[in-house]
Protein backbone atom coordinates (compact mmCIF):
# COMPACT_ATOMS: atom_id res chain seq x y z
CA UNK A 1 0.00 0.00 0.00
CA UNK A 2 2.86 2.40 0.80
CA UNK A 3 5.32 0.88 -1.72
CA UNK A 4 7.82 0.19 1.04
CA UNK A 5 8.03 3.86 2.09
CA UNK A 6 6.44 3.32 5.52
CA UNK A 7 9.76 2.86 7.42
CA UNK A 8 11.08 6.08 5.86
CA UNK A 9 7.95 8.00 6.90
CA UNK A 10 8.12 6.59 10.42
CA UNK A 11 11.77 7.63 10.63
CA UNK A 12 10.50 11.10 9.64
CA UNK A 13 8.12 10.90 12.61
CA UNK A 14 11.18 10.46 14.82
CA UNK A 15 12.60 13.72 13.39
CA UNK A 16 9.23 15.50 13.84
CA UNK A 17 8.96 14.36 17.47
CA UNK A 18 12.58 15.34 18.23
CA UNK A 19 11.93 18.81 16.81
CA UNK A 20 8.74 19.08 18.87
CA UNK A 21 10.32 17.93 22.15
CA UNK A 22 13.47 20.08 21.82
CA UNK A 23 11.36 23.10 20.78
CA UNK A 24 9.14 22.55 23.81
CA UNK A 25 12.16 22.58 26.11
CA UNK A 26 13.40 25.82 24.51
CA UNK A 27 9.89 27.31 24.72
CA UNK A 28 9.66 26.46 28.44
CA UNK A 29 12.94 28.31 29.08
CA UNK A 30 11.73 31.38 27.16
CA UNK A 31 8.29 31.08 28.77
CA UNK A 32 9.63 30.94 32.33
CA UNK A 33 12.06 33.79 31.66
CA UNK A 34 9.27 35.83 30.03
CA UNK A 35 6.82 35.18 32.86
CA UNK A 36 9.39 36.13 35.52
CA UNK A 37 10.22 39.30 33.57
CA UNK A 38 6.54 40.22 33.25
CA UNK A 39 6.01 39.78 36.98
CA UNK A 40 9.25 41.51 38.01
CA UNK A 41 9.50 44.95 39.61
CA UNK A 42 11.83 46.28 36.89
CA UNK A 43 10.00 48.36 34.28
CA UNK A 44 12.75 47.60 31.73
CA UNK A 45 12.26 43.83 32.05
CA UNK A 46 8.48 44.19 31.96
CA UNK A 47 8.71 46.37 28.84
CA UNK A 48 11.03 43.93 27.07
CA UNK A 49 8.80 40.96 27.91
CA UNK A 50 5.74 42.90 26.75
CA UNK A 51 7.45 43.73 23.45
CA UNK A 52 8.45 40.06 23.03
CA UNK A 53 4.96 38.62 23.52
CA UNK A 54 3.22 41.35 21.50
CA UNK A 55 5.48 41.24 18.44
CA UNK A 56 5.78 37.43 18.30
CA UNK A 57 2.05 36.91 18.62
CA UNK A 58 1.38 39.52 15.90
CA UNK A 59 3.39 37.69 13.19
CA UNK A 60 2.87 34.37 11.34
CA UNK A 61 5.07 31.48 12.60
CA UNK A 62 6.34 30.77 9.09
CA UNK A 63 7.57 34.35 8.64
CA UNK A 64 9.40 34.26 11.99
CA UNK A 65 10.94 30.93 11.06
CA UNK A 66 12.25 32.30 7.76
CA UNK A 67 13.64 35.40 9.50
CA UNK A 68 15.51 33.32 12.10
CA UNK A 69 16.70 30.82 9.49
CA UNK A 70 17.99 33.27 6.88
CA UNK A 71 18.91 35.98 9.39
CA UNK A 72 20.80 33.45 11.49
CA UNK A 73 22.63 32.32 8.39
CA UNK A 74 23.78 35.86 7.59
CA UNK A 75 24.69 36.65 11.20
CA UNK A 76 26.61 33.41 11.66
CA UNK A 77 28.57 33.95 8.49
CA UNK A 78 29.41 37.51 9.44
CA UNK A 79 30.84 36.20 12.72
CA UNK A 80 32.53 33.28 10.95
CA UNK A 81 34.18 35.57 8.38
CA UNK A 82 35.37 37.93 11.10
CA UNK A 83 36.88 34.99 12.97
CA UNK A 84 38.29 33.47 9.78
CA UNK A 85 36.31 30.18 10.04
CA UNK A 86 35.13 30.27 6.44
CA UNK A 87 31.59 29.67 5.17
CA UNK A 88 29.13 28.03 7.56
CA UNK A 89 25.69 26.54 7.01
CA UNK A 90 22.95 27.05 9.58
CA UNK A 91 21.82 23.69 10.82
CA UNK A 92 18.13 23.40 9.90
CA UNK A 93 17.36 21.43 13.05
CA UNK A 94 18.87 24.15 15.26
CA UNK A 95 17.15 26.94 13.31
CA UNK A 96 13.80 25.14 13.44
CA UNK A 97 13.88 24.31 17.13
CA UNK A 98 15.20 27.71 18.21
CA UNK A 99 12.53 29.50 16.17
CA UNK A 100 9.67 27.29 17.35
CA UNK A 101 10.93 27.56 20.92
CA UNK A 102 11.25 31.34 20.68
CA UNK A 103 7.77 31.71 19.14
CA UNK A 104 5.95 29.38 21.52
CA UNK A 105 7.92 30.78 24.46
CA UNK A 106 5.85 33.95 23.91
CA UNK A 107 2.62 31.99 24.21
CA UNK A 108 3.92 30.02 27.22
CA UNK A 109 4.94 33.32 28.87
CA UNK A 110 1.25 34.21 29.06
CA UNK A 111 0.31 30.72 30.25
CA UNK A 112 2.92 30.72 33.04
CA UNK A 113 2.16 34.31 34.04
CA UNK A 114 -1.54 33.48 34.38
CA UNK A 115 -0.70 30.32 36.34
CA UNK A 116 1.45 32.23 38.85
CA UNK A 117 -1.14 35.01 39.22
CA UNK A 118 -3.82 32.36 39.91
CA UNK A 119 -2.12 31.51 43.21
CA UNK A 120 -3.71 33.56 45.99
CA UNK A 121 -1.22 36.16 47.22
CA UNK A 122 -2.12 35.40 50.83
CA UNK A 123 -0.67 31.89 50.54
CA UNK A 124 2.76 33.29 49.67
CA UNK A 125 2.51 35.88 52.45
CA UNK A 126 1.44 33.15 54.87
CA UNK A 127 4.46 31.10 53.82
CA UNK A 128 6.80 34.00 54.57
CA UNK A 129 5.00 34.67 57.85
CA UNK A 130 5.57 31.03 58.85
CA UNK A 131 9.30 31.66 58.45
CA UNK A 132 9.82 29.79 55.16
CA UNK A 133 12.69 31.01 52.98
CA UNK A 134 12.04 32.40 49.47
CA UNK A 135 13.28 29.11 48.00
CA UNK A 136 10.98 27.08 50.21
CA UNK A 137 7.99 29.27 49.30
CA UNK A 138 8.82 28.74 45.62
CA UNK A 139 9.35 25.00 45.92
CA UNK A 140 6.53 24.08 48.28
CA UNK A 141 3.81 26.63 47.57
CA UNK A 142 4.21 28.38 44.22
CA UNK A 143 5.55 25.73 41.84
CA UNK A 144 3.21 22.81 42.68
CA UNK A 145 0.14 25.00 42.21
CA UNK A 146 1.56 26.83 39.21
CA UNK A 147 2.03 23.50 37.41
CA UNK A 148 -1.60 22.62 38.03
CA UNK A 149 -2.90 25.96 36.77
CA UNK A 150 -0.60 25.87 33.74
CA UNK A 151 -1.58 22.40 32.44
CA UNK A 152 -4.65 23.38 30.34
CA UNK A 153 -2.79 26.23 28.59
CA UNK A 154 0.32 24.12 28.30
CA UNK A 155 -1.66 21.30 26.63
CA UNK A 156 -3.08 23.75 24.13
CA UNK A 157 0.34 25.23 23.30
CA UNK A 158 1.92 21.80 22.92
CA UNK A 159 -0.78 20.78 20.42
CA UNK A 160 -0.38 23.97 18.38
CA UNK A 161 3.41 23.60 18.42
CA UNK A 162 3.29 19.95 17.42
CA UNK A 163 1.33 20.94 14.33
CA UNK A 164 3.62 23.90 13.68
CA UNK A 165 6.58 21.49 13.38
CA UNK A 166 5.21 20.69 9.90
CA UNK A 167 6.58 24.11 8.86
CA UNK A 168 10.22 23.05 9.40
CA UNK A 169 9.97 21.11 6.13
CA UNK A 170 9.83 24.51 4.39
CA UNK A 171 13.27 25.50 5.70
CA UNK A 172 14.68 22.20 4.51
CA UNK A 173 14.49 19.92 7.54
CA UNK A 174 14.01 16.26 6.64
CA UNK A 175 10.88 15.77 8.77
CA UNK A 176 7.76 13.68 8.19
CA UNK A 177 6.19 16.23 5.80
CA UNK A 178 9.36 16.37 3.70
CA UNK A 179 9.55 12.55 3.60
CA UNK A 180 5.91 12.44 2.48
CA UNK A 181 6.64 14.82 -0.38
CA UNK A 182 9.61 12.68 -1.46
CA UNK A 183 7.50 9.50 -1.37
CA UNK A 184 4.69 11.31 -3.24
CA UNK A 185 7.02 12.38 -6.00
CA UNK A 186 8.50 8.89 -6.35
CA UNK A 187 5.21 6.97 -6.37
CA UNK A 188 2.91 9.65 -7.86
CA UNK A 189 0.50 8.96 -5.02
CA UNK A 190 0.52 12.23 -3.03
CA UNK A 191 -2.88 11.64 -1.44
CA UNK A 192 -1.76 8.33 0.07
CA UNK A 193 1.27 9.81 1.79
CA UNK A 194 -0.17 13.15 2.90
CA UNK A 195 -3.23 11.34 4.29
CA UNK A 196 -0.89 8.89 6.04
CA UNK A 197 1.08 11.61 7.79
CA UNK A 198 -2.19 13.42 8.58
CA UNK A 199 -3.34 10.25 10.35
CA UNK A 200 -0.02 9.99 12.21
CA UNK A 201 -0.28 13.62 13.39
CA UNK A 202 -3.85 12.92 14.54
CA UNK A 203 -2.67 9.86 16.48
CA UNK A 204 0.07 11.88 18.21
CA UNK A 205 -2.29 14.75 19.12
CA UNK A 206 -4.89 12.26 20.41
CA UNK A 207 -2.33 10.50 22.64
CA UNK A 208 -1.11 13.92 23.86
CA UNK A 209 -4.65 14.97 24.79
CA UNK A 210 -5.25 11.72 26.70
CA UNK A 211 -1.93 11.82 28.57
CA UNK A 212 -2.09 15.52 29.49
CA UNK A 213 -5.78 15.16 30.41
CA UNK A 214 -4.88 12.33 32.80
CA UNK A 215 -2.04 14.45 34.23
CA UNK A 216 -4.46 17.34 34.71
CA UNK A 217 -6.89 15.10 36.61
CA UNK A 218 -4.07 13.77 38.77
CA UNK A 219 -2.70 17.24 39.58
CA UNK A 220 -6.21 18.50 40.35
CA UNK A 221 -7.22 15.65 42.67
CA UNK A 222 -8.53 17.02 45.90
CA UNK A 223 -9.65 20.24 44.17
CA UNK A 224 -13.40 20.72 44.05
CA UNK A 225 -14.55 20.76 40.44
CA UNK A 226 -16.06 24.27 40.55
CA UNK A 227 -12.70 25.61 41.73
CA UNK A 228 -10.86 23.96 38.85
CA UNK A 229 -9.81 26.44 36.21
CA UNK B 1 21.46 49.94 6.56
CA UNK B 2 18.06 49.61 4.89
CA UNK B 3 18.15 50.08 1.12
CA UNK B 4 15.16 52.37 0.60
CA UNK B 5 15.29 52.15 -3.20
CA UNK B 6 14.46 48.41 -2.94
CA UNK B 7 11.70 49.19 -0.46
CA UNK B 8 10.21 51.82 -2.75
CA UNK B 9 10.52 49.60 -5.79
CA UNK B 10 8.88 46.63 -4.08
CA UNK B 11 6.10 48.53 -2.36
CA UNK B 12 3.56 47.92 -5.18
CA UNK B 13 4.29 44.18 -5.05
CA UNK B 14 3.69 44.14 -1.29
CA UNK B 15 0.52 46.13 -1.84
CA UNK B 16 -0.76 43.44 -4.21
CA UNK B 17 0.28 40.78 -1.73
CA UNK B 18 -1.70 42.56 0.97
CA UNK B 19 -4.80 42.52 -1.24
CA UNK B 20 -4.39 38.77 -1.81
CA UNK B 21 -3.95 38.13 1.93
CA UNK B 22 -7.06 40.19 2.67
CA UNK B 23 -9.07 38.44 -0.04
CA UNK B 24 -8.13 35.00 1.36
CA UNK B 25 -8.87 36.17 4.90
CA UNK B 26 -12.24 37.75 4.21
CA UNK B 27 -13.62 35.01 1.95
CA UNK B 28 -12.60 32.16 4.27
CA UNK B 29 -13.68 34.04 7.42
CA UNK B 30 -17.15 34.75 5.99
CA UNK B 31 -17.62 31.17 4.75
CA UNK B 32 -16.34 29.83 8.08
CA UNK B 33 -18.72 32.03 10.06
CA UNK B 34 -21.72 30.97 7.98
CA UNK B 35 -20.82 27.28 8.36
CA UNK B 36 -19.99 27.34 12.05
CA UNK B 37 -23.30 28.79 13.23
CA UNK B 38 -25.38 25.72 12.24
CA UNK B 39 -22.50 23.34 13.03
CA UNK B 40 -22.06 24.70 16.56
CA UNK B 41 -25.78 24.27 17.22
CA UNK B 42 -25.53 20.68 15.95
CA UNK B 43 -22.38 20.16 18.07
CA UNK B 44 -24.30 21.08 21.22
CA UNK B 45 -27.51 19.24 20.28
CA UNK B 46 -28.86 16.48 22.51
CA UNK B 47 -29.00 13.95 19.66
CA UNK B 48 -25.77 11.97 19.23
CA UNK B 49 -26.53 11.78 15.48
CA UNK B 50 -26.06 15.54 15.26
CA UNK B 51 -23.29 15.86 17.85
CA UNK B 52 -20.77 13.18 16.95
CA UNK B 53 -20.24 13.81 13.21
CA UNK B 54 -19.54 17.48 13.93
CA UNK B 55 -17.18 16.56 16.76
CA UNK B 56 -15.43 14.09 14.41
CA UNK B 57 -14.96 16.86 11.85
CA UNK B 58 -13.56 19.41 14.30
CA UNK B 59 -11.37 16.79 15.98
CA UNK B 60 -9.71 15.69 12.72
CA UNK B 61 -9.21 19.25 11.46
CA UNK B 62 -7.90 20.53 14.79
CA UNK B 63 -5.65 17.50 15.23
CA UNK B 64 -3.72 17.80 11.96
CA UNK B 65 -1.44 20.56 10.62
CA UNK B 66 -3.00 23.05 8.22
CA UNK B 67 -0.02 22.58 5.88
CA UNK B 68 -0.85 18.87 5.54
CA UNK B 69 -4.53 19.63 4.91
CA UNK B 70 -3.54 22.11 2.22
CA UNK B 71 -1.20 19.58 0.58
CA UNK B 72 -3.90 16.88 0.67
CA UNK B 73 -6.31 19.19 -1.16
CA UNK B 74 -3.87 20.68 -3.66
CA UNK B 75 -1.34 17.90 -4.35
CA UNK B 76 -3.30 14.89 -3.05
CA UNK B 77 -6.73 14.97 -4.66
CA UNK B 78 -5.51 14.92 -8.31
CA UNK B 79 -4.18 11.40 -7.58
CA UNK B 80 -7.69 10.12 -8.31
CA UNK B 81 -8.95 9.91 -11.88
CA UNK B 82 -12.51 10.39 -10.66
CA UNK B 83 -11.57 13.88 -9.47
CA UNK B 84 -9.57 14.78 -12.57
CA UNK B 85 -12.60 13.85 -14.70
CA UNK B 86 -15.21 15.50 -12.49
CA UNK B 87 -16.92 18.83 -13.20
CA UNK B 88 -15.21 20.21 -10.06
CA UNK B 89 -11.75 19.70 -11.56
CA UNK B 90 -11.30 23.28 -12.84
CA UNK B 91 -11.87 24.41 -9.23
CA UNK B 92 -9.78 21.73 -7.50
CA UNK B 93 -6.88 22.33 -9.87
CA UNK B 94 -6.76 25.98 -8.84
CA UNK B 95 -4.32 26.68 -5.98
CA UNK B 96 -6.42 29.64 -4.87
CA UNK B 97 -9.53 27.49 -4.46
CA UNK B 98 -7.59 24.81 -2.57
CA UNK B 99 -6.08 27.37 -0.19
CA UNK B 100 -9.47 28.98 0.34
CA UNK B 101 -11.05 25.56 1.02
CA UNK B 102 -8.30 24.57 3.48
CA UNK B 103 -8.54 27.86 5.40
CA UNK B 104 -12.35 27.67 5.44
CA UNK B 105 -12.36 24.10 6.78
CA UNK B 106 -9.81 25.11 9.40
CA UNK B 107 -11.51 28.23 10.68
CA UNK B 108 -14.89 26.47 10.59
CA UNK B 109 -13.58 23.75 12.92
CA UNK B 110 -12.09 26.19 15.45
CA UNK B 111 -15.02 28.63 15.30
CA UNK B 112 -17.52 25.78 15.71
CA UNK B 113 -15.80 24.76 18.95
CA UNK B 114 -15.67 28.38 20.18
CA UNK B 115 -19.40 28.89 19.49
CA UNK B 116 -20.27 25.47 20.94
CA UNK B 117 -18.45 26.46 24.13
CA UNK B 118 -20.43 29.69 24.28
CA UNK B 119 -23.67 27.77 23.70
CA UNK B 120 -22.87 25.31 26.52
CA UNK B 121 -22.51 28.17 29.00
CA UNK B 122 -25.96 29.62 28.21
CA UNK B 123 -27.82 29.91 31.52
CA UNK B 124 -30.80 27.50 31.37
CA UNK B 125 -32.94 30.12 33.15
CA UNK B 126 -32.63 32.56 30.21
CA UNK B 127 -34.17 30.06 27.81
CA UNK B 128 -36.83 28.96 30.33
CA UNK B 129 -37.80 32.57 31.00
CA UNK B 130 -38.09 33.32 27.28
CA UNK B 131 -40.26 30.24 26.75
CA UNK B 132 -42.40 31.16 29.74
CA UNK B 133 -42.91 34.63 28.21
CA UNK B 134 -44.50 32.85 25.23
CA UNK B 135 -41.71 33.38 22.69
CA UNK B 136 -41.64 30.82 19.87
CA UNK B 137 -38.62 28.56 19.45
CA UNK B 138 -37.42 30.69 16.51
CA UNK B 139 -37.78 33.88 18.55
CA UNK B 140 -35.92 32.35 21.49
CA UNK B 141 -33.08 31.35 19.16
CA UNK B 142 -32.90 34.69 17.38
CA UNK B 143 -33.53 37.13 20.24
CA UNK B 144 -32.26 35.39 23.38
CA UNK B 145 -30.07 32.40 22.73
CA UNK B 146 -27.87 33.53 19.83
CA UNK B 147 -27.16 37.14 20.97
CA UNK B 148 -25.96 35.81 24.33
CA UNK B 149 -23.78 33.08 22.84
CA UNK B 150 -22.31 35.51 20.29
CA UNK B 151 -21.34 37.96 23.04
CA UNK B 152 -19.66 35.24 25.11
CA UNK B 153 -17.79 33.97 22.01
CA UNK B 154 -16.67 37.35 20.69
CA UNK B 155 -13.27 37.77 22.45
CA UNK B 156 -12.13 34.27 21.45
CA UNK B 157 -13.55 34.69 17.95
CA UNK B 158 -11.40 37.80 17.51
CA UNK B 159 -8.28 35.76 18.34
CA UNK B 160 -9.35 33.08 15.88
CA UNK B 161 -9.66 35.61 13.05
CA UNK B 162 -6.16 36.97 13.80
CA UNK B 163 -4.80 33.41 13.75
CA UNK B 164 -6.60 32.80 10.46
CA UNK B 165 -4.91 35.89 9.02
CA UNK B 166 -1.53 34.49 10.07
CA UNK B 167 -2.45 31.08 8.62
CA UNK B 168 -3.01 32.61 5.17
CA UNK B 169 0.81 32.90 4.98
CA UNK B 170 0.82 29.16 4.20
CA UNK B 171 -0.81 29.95 0.85
CA UNK B 172 2.70 30.98 -0.24
CA UNK B 173 3.60 27.25 -0.34
CA UNK B 174 1.10 26.57 -3.15
CA UNK B 175 2.27 29.35 -5.50
CA UNK B 176 -0.16 32.05 -4.31
CA UNK B 177 1.46 35.48 -4.26
CA UNK B 178 0.38 36.96 -0.92
CA UNK B 179 2.43 39.05 1.53
CA UNK B 180 4.84 36.30 2.60
CA UNK B 181 5.41 35.09 -0.98
CA UNK B 182 6.33 38.63 -2.00
CA UNK B 183 8.74 38.78 0.95
CA UNK B 184 10.34 35.47 -0.05
CA UNK B 185 10.68 36.59 -3.68
CA UNK B 186 12.29 39.87 -2.67
CA UNK B 187 14.68 37.93 -0.43
CA UNK B 188 15.61 35.59 -3.30
CA UNK B 189 16.36 38.57 -5.54
CA UNK B 190 18.27 40.81 -3.14
CA UNK B 191 19.29 38.55 -0.21
CA UNK B 192 18.40 41.33 2.23
CA UNK B 193 16.24 40.59 5.24
CA UNK B 194 14.86 44.00 6.34
CA UNK B 195 13.71 44.85 2.79
CA UNK B 196 12.05 41.45 2.30
CA UNK B 197 10.92 39.66 5.46
CA UNK B 198 11.11 42.87 7.47
CA UNK B 199 8.63 44.56 5.12
CA UNK B 200 6.37 41.50 5.24
CA UNK B 201 6.53 41.68 9.05
CA UNK B 202 5.49 45.35 8.97
CA UNK B 203 2.45 44.47 6.85
CA UNK B 204 1.44 41.57 9.12
CA UNK B 205 1.97 43.68 12.23
CA UNK B 206 -0.24 46.39 10.75
CA UNK B 207 -2.94 43.89 9.81
CA UNK B 208 -2.84 42.36 13.29
CA UNK B 209 -3.21 45.78 14.94
CA UNK B 210 -6.08 46.72 12.63
CA UNK B 211 -7.92 43.44 13.32
CA UNK B 212 -7.32 43.72 17.06
CA UNK B 213 -8.64 47.29 16.98
CA UNK B 214 -11.67 46.22 14.95
CA UNK B 215 -12.57 43.53 17.44
CA UNK B 216 -12.07 45.95 20.33
CA UNK B 217 -14.68 48.19 18.69
CA UNK B 218 -17.01 45.21 18.19
CA UNK B 219 -16.55 44.19 21.83
CA UNK B 220 -17.24 47.74 22.96
CA UNK B 221 -20.44 47.68 20.92
CA UNK B 222 -21.69 44.22 21.93
CA UNK B 223 -20.35 44.02 25.48
CA UNK B 224 -21.28 47.55 26.56
CA UNK B 225 -23.60 46.19 29.25
CA UNK B 226 -20.56 44.74 31.05
CA UNK B 227 -18.89 48.15 31.51
CA UNK B 228 -18.64 49.42 35.05
CA UNK B 229 -21.70 51.56 35.63
CA UNK B 230 -19.76 54.71 36.46
CA UNK B 231 -18.13 54.87 33.03
CA UNK B 232 -21.44 54.57 31.14
CA UNK B 233 -23.81 57.22 32.45
CA UNK B 234 -23.02 59.10 35.65
CA UNK B 235 -25.43 58.00 38.34
CA UNK B 236 -27.17 60.63 40.45
CA UNK B 237 -25.69 61.09 43.94
CA UNK B 238 -27.39 58.59 46.23
CA UNK B 239 -29.59 60.24 48.83
CA UNK B 240 -27.98 59.80 52.26
CA UNK B 241 -30.07 58.04 54.81
CA UNK B 242 -30.83 60.66 57.44
CA UNK B 243 -31.62 58.26 60.28
CA UNK B 244 -27.93 57.83 61.09
CA UNK B 245 -27.02 61.49 60.78
From TrEMBL, chain A:
Family: Belongs to the binding-protein-dependent transport system permease family. HisMQ subfamily.
Protein name, as recorded: ABC transporter permease
Top-rank lineage group of the source organism: Bacteria
Membrane topology per record: Multi-pass membrane protein
Domain ABC transmembrane type-1: 13-212
Lineage per the UniProt record: Bacteria, Pseudomonadati, Pseudomonadota, Alphaproteobacteria, Rhodobacterales
Location(s), subcellular: Cell inner membrane; Cell membrane
Pfam families: BPD_transp_1 (PF00528)
Segments passing through the bilayer: 15-37, 49-70, 90-108, 154-173, 193-215
Classification via InterPro entries: AA_ABC_transptr_permease_3TM (IPR010065), ABC_transp_permease_HisMQ (IPR051613), MetI-like (IPR000515), MetI-like_sf (IPR035906)
Assigned keywords, A-Z: Cell inner membrane, Cell membrane, Membrane, Transmembrane, Transmembrane helix, Transport
SUPFAM superfamilies: MetI-like
Taxonomic source organism: Paracoccus aerius
UniProtKB/TrEMBL annotation, chain B:
Family indicated by similarity: Belongs to the binding-protein-dependent transport system permease family. HisMQ subfamily.
Primary residence: membrane
Superkingdom of the organism of origin: Bacteria
Matching InterPro entries: AA_ABC_transptr_permease_3TM, ArtM/GltK/GlnP/TcyL/YhdX-like, MetI-like, MetI-like_sf
Locations listed in the record: Cell inner membrane; Cell membrane
Pfam families hit by this protein: BPD_transp_1
Keywords assigned by UniProt, alphabetized: Cell inner membrane, Cell membrane, Membrane, Transmembrane, Transmembrane helix, Transport
Origin species: Paracoccus aerius
Membrane topology according to the record: Multi-pass membrane protein
Protein name: ABC transporter permease
Transmembrane portions of the chain: 20-42, 54-77, 197-218
The ABC transmembrane type-1 domain, residue ranges: 18-218
Amino acid sequence: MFHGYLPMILDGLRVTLSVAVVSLAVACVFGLAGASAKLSHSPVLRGLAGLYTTVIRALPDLLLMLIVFYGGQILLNRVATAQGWGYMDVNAFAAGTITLGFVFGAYLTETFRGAILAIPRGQIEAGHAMGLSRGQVMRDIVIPQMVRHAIPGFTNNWLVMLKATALVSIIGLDDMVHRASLASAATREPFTFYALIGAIYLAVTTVSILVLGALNRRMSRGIRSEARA
Amino acid sequence: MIDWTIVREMLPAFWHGLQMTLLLLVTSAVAGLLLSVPLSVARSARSPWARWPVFGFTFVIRGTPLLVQLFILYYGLPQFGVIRNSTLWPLLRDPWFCAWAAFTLNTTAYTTEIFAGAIRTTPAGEIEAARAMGLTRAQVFRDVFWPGAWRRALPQYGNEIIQLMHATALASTVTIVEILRVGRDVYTNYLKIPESFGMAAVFYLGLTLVLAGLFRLLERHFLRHLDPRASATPMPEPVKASAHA
